[in-house]
């Protein structure tokens, strides 16, 4: 599972940024005992994993999947693996630990996906599903199936994305909260859009909005709260679905709404990607100057972000601009030069 010595060093460095020293020392000591196997596991160990998961998740949203990815893997395959082999004080604690492990494994998969390591991501997702099943956490399993649908639609596999999104809805039925159901439903909308079904796309988007309107943020699971799935995220996904259907004016409206309402510091990566999607739509609609402004905003937001998806977005800038040939205006040439420099930077 990708063990690297420097991954463990990165783990300690990352944790020190967000966890008080006395808490971190306790977390580290409990992890060392767990790696010996057979350790007693209770609420303190579960809380330790959840604390680390929160640190890694916040960093992922801000800095991208390439940041501390191996540190997540190292923590998962050492401390957390030890906890799963321990003795539990109750069946409730056993399920809670397996659920936390499933969520951390999902995060390892998401970081691999964001780093464009798609085969690696898929293997982590499958392990996350197994752990969630062991925890009897069907909602979390649905969250992972949703991530697999997201990966599939991004890679151009619309039918598979739709099947995975529908599986997320079916598997989590009766267990998922309103916001989680909305998230799974909007991925179904993207699957319908990718397979060219406008009526079902529109119906799924309306259903997702209705589910989200019933959500109470404090009652949502940690993985919904951390990922920040709100009307802002829904607008981003809706914009991409409408883009795939060819409804560019509606897509631009949704993407603009997402950009305008995003917490740009806490969710820097997705803000960058949404700006890039907005610019792409503006370019296709023939508004190159506006597209250039949005792309420049995306590159500004990208500073410090390590993301394979962001790199793909930068490459797309150059592809779009190259289609203009010698007709490319000077302001767009400057953007092209900036994108080219970014792609060769270390």
Number of helical regions: 17
Main β-sheet, in a few words?
2 strands, parallel
What class would the helix/strand composition place it in? mainly alpha
> Globular, elongated, flat, extended or rod-shaped: what is the shape?
globular
Taking Cα atoms only, what radius of gyration do you get, to the nearest Å? 21 Å
Provide the low-confidence segments as ranges. 3-14
Q: Provide the β-strand percentage band.
A: under 5%
Distance between the termini: 26 Å
Which assembly state applies to the chains in this document?
single chain
* Secondary-structure element pattern, one letter each: HHEHHEHHHHHHHHHHHHH
> What level of helicity do the residues show?
over 70%
Q: Taking all residues together, what is the mean pLDDT?
A: 91
How many β-strand stretches? 2
Going across the major beta sheet, what is the strand order? 1-2
Characterization of this structure:
With 346 residues, the protein is mainly α. It has a domain at 1-136. It has helices at residues 5-18, 21-35, 43-63, 69-84, 91-114, 118-134, 138-154, 158-171, 178-194, 198-213, 222-227, 231-245, 248-261, 268-284, 288-301, 308-322, 330-344; strands at residues 40-41, 87-88. The protein has a two-stranded parallel sheet. The longest helix is centred in the first third of the chain and has 24 residues, at 91-114. The protein is globular. Residues 3-14 have low confidence and may be disordered.
């Amino acid at each position: 599972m990708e063990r690297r010595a420097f991954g463990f060093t990165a783990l300690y460095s990352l944790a020190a940024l967000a966890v008080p020293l006395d808490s971190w020392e306790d977390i580290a000591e409990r992890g060392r005992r767990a790696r010996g196997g057979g350790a007693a596991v209770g609420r303190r160990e579960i809380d330790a994993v959840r604390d680390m998961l929160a640190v890694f998740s916040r960093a992922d949203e801000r800095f991208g999947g390439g940041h501390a990815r191996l540190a997540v893997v190292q923590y998962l395959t050492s401390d957390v693996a030890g906890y799963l082999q321990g003795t539990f004080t109750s069946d409730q604690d056993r399920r809670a630990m397996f659920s936390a492990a499933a969520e951390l494994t999902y995060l390892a998969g998401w970081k691999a996906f964001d780093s464009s390591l798609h085969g690696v991501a898929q293997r982590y997702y499958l392990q996350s599903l197994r752990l969630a099943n062991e925890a009897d956490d069907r909602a979390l399993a649905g969250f992972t199936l949703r991530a697999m649908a997201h990966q599939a639609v991004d890679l151009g596999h619309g039918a598979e994305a739709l099947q995975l999104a529908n599986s997320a809805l079916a598997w989590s039925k009766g267990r998922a909260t309103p916001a989680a159901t909305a998230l799974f439903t909007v991925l179904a909308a993207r699957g319908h859009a990718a397979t060219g079904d406008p009526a079902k796309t529109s119906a799924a988007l309306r259903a997702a909005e209705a589910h989200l309107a019933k959500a109470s943020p404090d009652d949502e699971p940690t993985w919904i709260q951390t990922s920040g799935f709100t009307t802002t995220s829904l607008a981003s996904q809706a914009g991409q679905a409408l883009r795939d259907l060819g409804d560019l004016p509606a897509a631009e409206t949704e993407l603009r709404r997402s950009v305008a309402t995003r917490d740009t510091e806490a969710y820097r990566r997705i803000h960058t990607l949404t700006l890039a999607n907005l610019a792409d739509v503006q370019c296709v609609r023939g508004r190159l100057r506006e597209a250039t402004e949005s792309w420049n905003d995306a590159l500004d937001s990208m500073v410090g972000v390590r993301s394979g998806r962001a790199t793909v977005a930068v490459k797309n800038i150059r592809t779009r601009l190259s289609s203009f040939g010698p007709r490319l205006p000077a302001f767009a040439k400057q953007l092209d030069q900036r994108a080219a420099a970014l792609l060769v930077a270390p």
